[in-house]
Amino acid sequence: MAVKMRLQRKGRRKRPFYHIVVADSRAPRDGKYIERIGTYNPMTKPATINLDRDKAFEWLMKGAQPTDTVRAILRFKGVLYRKHLMRGVKKGALTLEQAEQMYQEYIQAKDAKIAARFEAAAEERRAWHRAISGEAPTPAKAEETAAETPAAEAEAPAEEAEAPAEGAAPEAEATAAQEEETKTEE
Asked: What is the DSSP annotation of 64-115?
């Protein structure tokens, strides 16, 4: 019996939601499955993935073959990295403790990046809601922009003052050369 790790579509029309399941490859897409190991919601920004990493790892080690999308999800959640580390343990390149430590560090760093991504998306949504509702920026942000604006304006005139001086010399030489040419022609 060939076992696959694949997505099972749920949700309504044009609003997909998926269960990540382990199923016999001969079973229909939304039909009978062996075990449900997670969910995937592509409609949120960023996409929401809930996955039981231990169950997914166990099924990978038993020989379950993930589909392309599920493979990408497993890579994103670090399950394939754990499989890679365990192969190193099996070959003797690492000890089990080293592999577990490396895996935990990877998971912590990855979870921190994901949390930062969710926070950035939430802040973007809040800013968009403030903009369409016509609210003024928050006082803290208004003070930051006010503090940055004079510094930027102070730098800009100095650059502009230098630019005409540098650019004026070639233009002055060009106009002087044209005047001399007109005088010699007359």
From this structure: PEEPHHHHHHHHHHTHHHHHHHHHHHHHTSS-HHHHHHHHHHHHHHHHHHHH
3-state DSSP of 138-170: CHHHHHHHHHHHHHHHHHHHHHHHHHHHHHHHH
What lies within 8 Å, CB to CB, of 77 at 6+ separation is: 49, 51, 53, 56, 110
Burial class (CB in 10 A: 0-12, 13-18, 19+), 18: buried
H/E element, 10: strand 3-12
SS3 175: helix
d(CA 48, CA 90): 33
**With contact defined as beta carbons under 8 Å apart, do 6 and 23 qualify?**
yes
Question: Mean pLDDT throughout 20-48?
Answer: 91
Query: Kindly report the CA angle at 105 between 101 and 106, in degrees rounded to 5?
Result: 115
Per-residue pLDDT at 141 exceeds 90: no
* pLDDT bracket for residue 29 (50, 70, 90): confident
CATH number given to 3-129:
3.30.1320.10
Query: pTM, whole model, 2 decimals?
Result: 0.67
